[in-house]
C-alpha cells in the first residue's frame, strides 16, 4: 500500500511527510526542496479487536492498532510538468506507484501557482486542484498519444481488445484494464471507430482514467493561518477535503519523540511530561493546544485515515490460527493486520495470507462468533478470522 503526497512547492508536503513519518527530510521555504522522492512509513489508526478481550494483544497501544503504509513525498509540481518543466518528470515517475494521492495544498493562499511566496489570501487554492488534475491527465494523454495513430488503426483493423492494448501501454502509470473499461463506458466512446475520436474525446477519456486510477484526497494545509473563506470554499468540493496543520503535527510528534509531552497521532490534546521546558517552548505548545482543541486535531492522521478507509474503501482484517485465543502458531495474539478492499471475502483473505493457502482453501471461522464461513462470505472491518486449508 503506497500513498503519494503531491502538490506544488512550498505547500507543506515535506512538513506533512516528516510529521507523518518522523523521517529526516529537508524542509525549506524555496521551490524544489524535494528533488528525489522521500519514502517513509506512516500508519492508519483503528481500534484493536483485543479491547473486547480480557487482555491486550501486545501489538497495539492502549487498544489502538497502527497499521503501516508507505508514504512517498514526490518532487513539487509546477505548470506544464507533463512536458518536463521543473522537476515534472521526476514527479510523474515517482507517483506512478501510488494507489492514491494526498494533494497537499496551501489553503492560506500564501503561495502562487508555482509555489513562490505571496501575501496570505493573494492566491486562490482552488486553482491548485485544477492544475494538478490537468497535469496528471495530460501525463496520461502524452503516454497514449506516443503512437496513437498507428495503434488506433491496428486495433480497428485487427479487432484487437482496446482495454488490453491500452492497459498494457499505461501499465507503468498504474492503470489497469478495469480503469480503461470504466472510462470507455463513462465517456461513451465507440470502441469500433477509434480513428474518429477527437482530441477533446481523448483528453476527456484520459481525465476519467486519471480520476479512476489515481483517486485523490485534499489536505487543506496551513489551516491555522488560512482565511476562513478559503477553507469553506474548499469544503464545498465534491471530494474529500481535510483541513490540516502539518507544522502543528510535526511540533507535537517531535515533542512526543523527545518525551516532552505525551501525544498520540490524531489526539485532540496532549499532556506535558517534561519540567525542563523553556517559557518559549511552553508558549509554543500552548498555542498548538489552542489550535487542536478548536479544530479537533491537526488533521494529519485524519487525512491519512480518510485516504485509506474512505477514499480507497479499505477495511482491516486480522487472520489467526487459533480461533479461541486469537493467536498464531507461536502464541502471538493478533500478530497481523491486513488492509483489504471492502467487499473482500474469506477466500480473498486466504490468498492474502499465502497463495498456497488460497489454492487449498476449505473454509474460514469467525473467531468472534466461532461460526463457520464459506469462501464467498464478505468480510467486515475488524473481523478476526481463522483460515482452514489443506496447505502445510
TrEMBL record:
Q: Does the keyword Protein biosynthesis apply?
A: no
**Gene3D superfamilies hit by this protein:** 1.10.8.470, 3.10.20.30, P-loop containing nucleotide triphosphate hydrolases (3.40.50.300)
What top-level branch of life does the organism fall under? Answer: Archaea
Record-linked SUPFAM superfamilies: P-loop containing nucleoside triphosphate hydrolases, TGS-like
Which GO cellular component terms are attached?
Answer: cytoplasm
Q: Which residues form the OBG-type G domain?
A: 1-264
Task: Identify the InterPro entries for this entry.
Answer: Beta-grasp_dom_sf, G_OBG, GTP-bd, P-loop_NTPase, TGS, TGS-like, YGR210-like_G4
UniProt KW Transport keyword: no
What PANTHER family does UniProt report for this protein, alphabetically? OBG GTPASE FAMILY, OBG-TYPE G DOMAIN-CONTAINING PROTEIN
Q: What is this protein called?
A: OBG-type G domain-containing protein
Organism encoding this protein: Methanolobus vulcani
Amino acid at each position: 500500500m503506497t500513498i503519494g503526497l503531491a502538490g506544488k512547492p512550498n505547500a507543506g508536503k515535506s512538513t506533512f511527510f516528516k510529521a507523518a513519518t518522523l523521517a529526516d527530510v529537508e524542509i525549506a521555504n524555496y521551490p524544489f526542496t524535494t528533488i528525489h522522492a522521500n519514502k517513509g512509513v506512516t500508519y492508519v489508526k483503528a481500534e484493536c479487536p483485543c479491547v473486547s478481550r480480557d487482555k491486550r494483544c501486545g501489538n497495539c497501544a492502549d487498544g489502538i492498532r497502527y497499521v503501516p503504509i508507505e508514504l512517498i513525498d514526490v518532487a513539487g509540481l509546477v505548470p506544464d510538468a507533463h512536458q518536463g518543466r521543473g522537476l515534472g518528470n521526476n514527479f510523474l515517475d515517482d507517483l506512478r506507484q501510488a494507489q492514491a494521492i494526498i494533494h497537499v495544498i496551501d489553503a492560506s493562499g500564501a503561495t502562487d501557482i508555482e509555489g513562490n511566496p505571496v501575501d496570505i489570501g493573494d492566491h486562490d487554492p482552488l486553482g491548485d486542484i485544477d492544475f494538478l488534475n490537468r497535469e496528471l491527465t495530460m501525463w496520461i494523454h502524452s503516454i497514449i498519444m506516443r503512437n496513437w495513430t498507428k495503434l488506433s488503426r491496428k486495433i480497428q483493423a485487427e479487432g484487437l481488445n482496446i482495454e488490453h492494448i491500452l492497459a498494457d501501454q499505461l501499465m507503468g502509470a498504474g492503470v489497469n484494464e478495469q480503469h480503461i473499461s470504466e472510462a470507455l463506458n463513462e465517456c461513451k466512446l465507440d470502441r469500433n471507430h477509434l480513428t474518429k475520436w477527437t482530441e477533446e474525446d481523448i483528453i476527456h477519456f484520459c481525465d476519467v482514467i486519471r480520476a479512476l486510477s489515481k483517486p485523490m484526497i485534499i489536505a487543506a494545509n496551513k489551516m491555522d493561518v488560512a482565511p476562513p473563506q478559503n477553507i469553506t470554499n474548499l469544503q464545498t468540493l465534491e471530494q474529500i477535503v481535510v483541513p490540516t496543520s502539518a507544522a502543528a503535527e510535526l511540533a507535537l510528534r517531535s515533542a512526543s519523540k523527545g518525551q516532552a509531552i505525551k501525544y498520540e497521532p490524531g489526539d485532540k490534546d496532549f499532556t506535558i511530561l517534561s519540567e525542563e521546558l523553556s517559557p518559549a517552548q511552553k508558549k509554543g505548545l500552548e498555542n498548538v493546544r489552542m489550535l487542536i482543541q478548536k479544530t479537533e486535531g491537526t488533521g494529519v492522521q485524519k487525512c491519512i485515515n480518510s485516504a485509506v478507509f474512505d477514499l480507497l474503501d479499505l477495511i482491516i482484517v486480522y487472520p489467526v490460527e487459533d480461533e479461541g485465543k486469537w493467536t498464531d502458531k507461536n502464541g502471538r495474539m493478533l500478530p497481523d493486520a491486513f488492509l483489504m478492499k471492502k467487499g473482500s471475502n474469506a477466500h480473498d483473505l486466504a490468498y492474502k495470507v499465502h497463495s498456497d493457502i488460497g489454492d487449498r482453501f476449505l473454509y474460514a471461522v469467525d473467531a468472534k462468533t466461532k461460526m463457520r464461513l464459506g469462501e464467498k462470505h464478505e468480510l467486515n472491518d475488524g473481523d478476526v478470522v481463522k483460515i482452514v486449508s489443506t496447505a502445510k
